[in-house]
Write a structure and sequence with these properties.
The structure holds two protein chains of two kinds. Chain A has three helices and nine strands, in the order βαββββαββββα. By secondary structure, chain A is mainly beta. In chain A, 28% of the residues are buried. By secondary structure, chain B is α+β, with helices and mostly antiparallel strands. Chain B has twelve helices and 21 strands. In chain B, helix 7 packs antiparallel against helix 10 and helix 10 packs across helix 11. Chain B is flat and about 185 Å long. The N and C termini of chain B lie far apart (127 Å). In chain B, 19% of the residues are buried. The chains are: A mainly beta, B alpha+beta. The interface between A and B is medium-sized, with 37 and 26 residues.
Chain lengths: 209, 620
């Protein structure tokens, strides 16, 4: 029996070409209540959703300089949910007038054997952290307010230490490539959150030190 | 005088009134006496007011004069009291002052009494026309000046008043706008963009995915402008016929407490929902493949749930907003709305919205994209196509509403069939008990076929009809289950056959009560003419002493046939035969004769049968 045909061309279309539009900001702990209150009013009318996630960041160091980064995330509050594997590409250097950070995004749901699989593939875990907070939704926009905590003992998610006295606020939208009108909606939404929190595009490449 | 008996003395006053007339029967009419005011007037006329005494004028002036005192003194002396002229020089002064005081007191009393107007009134006394005549021009000018000053004062006061009222109104208007805005904000979503106040009346925050933005703008000073801000900036109010709505004009038509803007905004929201429903329905009508394709024409979706039945869903957009459902046979009747289906459409749309917002969609872990929780498992659990298909919702809005329409139509047609049979056929009677608790896709009715007056005896035919979307399932009392299609004729034929069976069953039950013996019974006889609807049934019963027998054959089409078998001894035309020698054989039953059932007395079949049985049972 011969092997099934393997396509030589890279796979395009479908979920491969999704772009993530991202705006980030932060608020102090004291301002959290008012921010949640405001988001509850602005976003879709649902019960507020809390989450606790554990994220592991895997690196594959090749011969080239830039390592290949994959993020594996699982939910601690819903242990039966599948793992989520994410690849985030380089931010697109389009016109400066675009209000949000745009980067290629590949999302894959995976079973619970994901960490072993990545280890077998050659990835090494770089760091891990626990994020917990609240999730909101407005149409296609997702707003996540999360508190990041550092894991002191690798693998032990109970023993965590808060990284900062503030909460990270992220506004992101997943859209197929080519749709640019989402950034305007995101910007108008971000305007409504001022002056509680200033959401802006933060280029991760400029964060390296 | 003491000792004498007391004498009664009566005193009578003299008749004071003058007799005016004495009537013929002796009654006297008196001249009515003068009343007080009349009396006073008569006396006052005697007084000459023009001839005022000099002392009065001097009293008014307040300065006594010597030469007048001599006149006064003799007047006083002529009065009742005579006294010596006083020795001291101030006596006359004293007297004058005293008289002046008296005069003043009297004047004061008179004026106070006159002021009350109860006991005295002032009447004008004719004056000399030679009173001082000031020139008329002077009078006119003086009057004009005084009026002018009065008018000035009044105008100044009015001006101040109007200014304060205007200010008050302005303040109130300001406050009114804010309070109205507050009330608006408590019910609708508003946000401030720049210097404009925009509102959102779409269902997007409730889970709708309709791309319409549904914004409206709130303007100050009596206007709420309901615009749609399209991308090209033109103001096109295609959400119904909404112009500017005055915020403060409250026409008496609206109910108490409802603002006009509230009504308009609600109407616009309804329009938006109806548009969304129609867009969803038309999208499904085009995409979904069905046996009979749905036709989508501009504002109408036409489909044929049953052959001969047309369902049209149209979006009617006028000053009001309506959506029509017309389930019509060949000729459409425009007034035939199916409000139930319209309501169900709205409800299903809202359910769809709610599903979008359910927490099942929220991702755990948080970085995953939105989507149904179970679909996310499809990858890791390696679902195949069948499993994925079963997860997804495979019935759209259009299919659901067509199913509901089919059910409603089938149910109404079933009811109509049963009712028409019940009104057409009196014997036996058909009763339908509809169940109160129904589903959108299923209803049930219990049909009883009885004879009037014999309900307790003949209750063998009881049918439970479960009306579904396309079929009717009939469960008989004896356990048989029959599935009928949506054809009206099938149900009617079935009920007719059951009615004919009931008659025969009734005879069987009656026989038990009357003491007759059932010799044979068949629900479906194979003899006699073939019925086009169902089968004929027959029963034969024998009298208690065995002499008579009644045979009944009843068919849905052929009607009933009743034969009575007489004993041999009663028949006249019995052929003489040598075979039968013994006389006892004459007690057997012989030939049968048909009964003219239509000429039989009795209001229904069972009653007639009872009379027949009673007639054939001889009294002991």
């Amino acid at each position: 029996m011969e092997a099934p045909p393997v396509t030589v061309m890279p796979v395009t279309g479908g979920t491969i070409n999704m772009m993530e539009y991202l705006l980030q900001g932060s608020v102090y702990d004291q301002a959290l209540e008012s921010l949640l209150h405001r988001l509850r009013g602005l976003c879709d009318n649902m019960e507020p959703e809390t989450f606790t996630d554990h994220e592991l960041v895997y690196l594959l160091k090749g011969q080239q300089g830039n390592p290949f980064i994959l993020r594996a995330r699982r939910s601690l509050s819903h242990p039966t949910s599948p793992w989520h594997l994410r690849y985030l590409g380089q931010p697109e250097v389009g016109d400066k007038s675009r209000h949000a950070l745009v980067r290629n995004c590949v999302d894959v749901a995976a079973s619970h054997s994901l960490p072993e699989f990545l280890n077998e593939m050659g990835f090494r875990m770089d760091h891990e952290f626990v994020a917990n907070g609240h999730m909101f939704r407005k149409g296609a926009m997702k707003i996540v307010v999360s508190k990041l905590s550092r894991i002191l003992v690798p693998g032990n998610t109970e023993n965590t230490e808060r990284l900062s006295l503030s909460y990270l606020v992220e506004l992101n939208v997943l859209a197929p490539a080519g749709q640019d009108n989402m950034s305007d909606d995101m910007r108008s939404f971000a305007e409504q959150l001022k002056p509680l929190v200033h959401l802006e595009k933060i280029d991760p490449s400029k964060q390296r030190h | 005088m003491s000792g004498c008996p007391a004498v009664r003395v009566s005193i009578e006053s003299t008749c004071e009134k003058q007799v005016q007339e004495v009537a013929l029967d002796g009654t006297e009419t008196y001249v009515p006496p003068l009343s007080m005011s009349q009396n006073l007037a008569k006396l006052a006329q005697r007084i000459d007011f023009s001839q005022g005494s000099d002392s009065e004028e001097e009293v008014i002036e307040g300065e006594p004069r010597d030469r007048e005192w001599t006149k006064q003194e003799p007047e006083e002396e002529e009065g009742t009291v005579k006294f010596q002229p006083s020795l001291w020089p101030w006596d006359s002064v004293r007297n004058n002052l005293r008289s002046a005081l008296t005069e003043m007191c009297v004047l004061h009393d008179v004026l106070s009494v006159v002021k009350e107007k109860k006991y005295m009134a002032l009447d004008p006394v004719s004056q000399d026309l030679t009173a001082s005549k000031t020139p008329q021009v002077f009078q006119l000018i003086s009057k004009k000046k005084s009026l002018g000053t009065a008018a000035q004062l009044l105008l100044k006061g009015a001006e101040k008043l109007s200014k304060s009222v205007a200010e008050n109104q302005e303040n109130r208007r300001q406050r009114d706008f804010n309070s109205e805005l507050l009330r608006l904000r408590s019910q609708w979503k508003l946000r401030k963009v720049g210097d404009k106040i925009l509102g959102d009346l779409s269902y997007r925050s409730a889970g709708s995915l309709f791309p319409h933005h549904g914004t409206f703008e709130v303007l100050k000073n009596t206007d709420i402008d309901l615009d749609k801000n399209d991308l090209d900036g033109s103001i096109s109010p295609d959400i119904g016929d909404l112009g500017t709505v005055a915020l403060f004009r409250r026409p008496p038509k609206t109910k108490a407490g409802t603002q006009q803007w509230h009504v308009k905004l609600e109407a616009a929201q309804n329009v938006l929902l109806c548009k969304e429903i129609f867009a969803q329905l038309s999208r499904e009508a085009v995409q979904i493949k069905s046996q009979i394709p749905h036709i989508v024409v501009k504002n109408q979706i036409i489909s044929q749930p049953f052959p001969g039945l047309q369902l049209s869903i149209s979006l009617c957009h006028s000053t009001g907003e309506k959506k029509n459902h017309r389930a019509s046979p060949e000729k459409p009747k425009p007034d035939d709305h199916l409000y139930v289906l319209e309501h169900n459409l709205h409800q299903m749309m809202r359910e769809f919205h709610k599903q979008q917002l359910s927490s099942v969609v929220m991702p755990h872990p948080a970085s995953a994209p939105f989507g149904h929780k179970r679909m996310r498992l499809a990858g890791p659990m390696a679902y195949d196509k069948a499993e994925i298909f079963s997860l997804q919702q495979n019935e759209g809005l259009l299919e659901k509403i067509i199913k509901q329409a089919k059910h409603i139509f089938l149910r109404s047609r079933t009811a109509r069939t049963i009712d028409s049979l019940a009104s057409r056929i009196e014997d036996p009677q058909i009763q339908a008990h509809w169940s109160n608790i129904n589903d959108v896709y299923e209803s049930s009715v219990k049909v009883l076929i009885t004879s009037q007056g014999y309900e307790q005896i003949c209750k063998s035919i009881q049918l439970q009809l479960n009306i579904g979307v396309e079929q009717i399932r009939v469960v008989h009392r004896d356990g048989r289950v029959v599935t009928l299609s949506h054809q009206e004729q099938e149900l009617q034929d079935f009920l007719l056959s059951q009615m004919s069976q009931h008659q025969v069953h009734a005879v069987q039950q009656l026989a038990k009560v009357m003491g007759w013996h059932v010799l044979s019974f068949s629900n479906h006889v194979g003899l006699g003419p073939v019925e086009s609807i169902g089968n004929a049934s027959a029963v034969t019963v024998a009298s208690p002493n065995g002499e008579y027998a009644i045979s009944v054959r009843n068919g849905p089409e052929s009607g009933c046939k009743v034969l009575v078998q007489f004993p041999r001894s009663q028949t006249k035309e019995l052929p003489k035969s040598d075979v039968i020698q013994d006389a006892k054989w004459s007690h057997l039953r012989g030939p049968s004769k048909e009964v003219h059932w239509s000429r039989m007395e009795g209001r229904n079949f069972v009653y007639k049968m009872e009379l027949l049985m009673a007639a054939l049972t001889p009294c002991p």
